[in-house]
Write a structure and sequence with these properties.
Length: 234
């Protein structure tokens, strides 16, 4: 006779991200503008000194990037938890200052996340449209995760383009991918990680999409789908 299939020990194991840790870094913070001396102090980004953070950009109507990043991160957190993941966030509201970019990277490194995403929107040229995914360039700290980060970048590009309707950038990177060696979040990472600029807040067409809850939910869903796809192909 055939051996019976062993019973499922925990029904939760059926969730696609059960047992995983996912890092989410919502760029900037809602009150960074109020603490210039803290935000401008220099920190080591793995290759050079650079300011702790910036205020981020905004649409012409004044909708802040920090708010956009926080909203998408909140939707993504809910999606990932529903899929069984443990989520590690680098900040917990949009009404504070910091933390600095090097601290954000360390929070995710120390959590030993299986994969992580830095969420941003760009302040590009007014005629520039679309999203770009920034990925790490090998340095001593991130060397072991550059290949996996590139694989995640490609999965995310496909998921984000089809899930949100945002085109790939026509001014940043090549087909939506841009290696960068000047960002703490990528230089200091010891887990597979990319930074996504979800669109250009200075472009009227992109901005009209970015400020809607509908787009923000779709962006989060596209990120969650990419994370599941990436982790299930390891
Ligand atoms: Zn940003």
């Amino acid at each position: 006779m055939f051996a019976a299939k062993p019973p499922v020990a925990h029904p939760a194991r059926a969730l696609p991200l059960s047992g995983t840790v996912i890092g989410i870094d919502p760029g900037h913070n809602g009150r960074n503008w109020s603490a210039p001396s803290f935000i401008n102090h220099l920190v080591w980004n793995g290759r050079a000194l650079e300011p702790c953070d910036t205020t981020g950009t905004a649409t012409n109507a004044g909708y802040s990037e920090a708010q956009f990043n926080w909203n998408v991160a909140s939707y993504l957190t809910a999606d990932l938890k529903a899929d069984g993941a443990k989520v590690v966030l680098t900040r917990h509201n949009n009404t504070s200052v910091g933390p600095c970019i090097n601290t954000r990277s360390r929070i995710i490194d120390r959590a030993h996340a299986n994969v992580a995403i830095d969420i941003h929107a760009d302040g590009g040229p007014v005629s520039g449209r679309g999203f770009a995914i920034l990925e790490p360039v090998t340095d001593p700290i991130n060397a072991r995760v550059v290949g996996a980060s590139d694989r995640f970048a490609r999965v995310l590009r496909s998921s984000f383009a089809s899930g949100t309707g945002m085109p790939v950038s026509n001014y940043d990177g090549v087909n939506g991918l841009q290696p960068r060696n000047d960002l703490a979040g990528l230089n200091l990472t010891t887990v597979p990680k990319v930074l996504i600029e979800c669109g250009n807040m200075r472009n009227p067409t992109d901005a009209a999409m970015l400020v809607t809850a509908s787009f923000q939910r779709k962006a989060a869903a596209a990120m969650a789908a990419a994370i599941i796809k990436f982790l299930h192909r390891r």
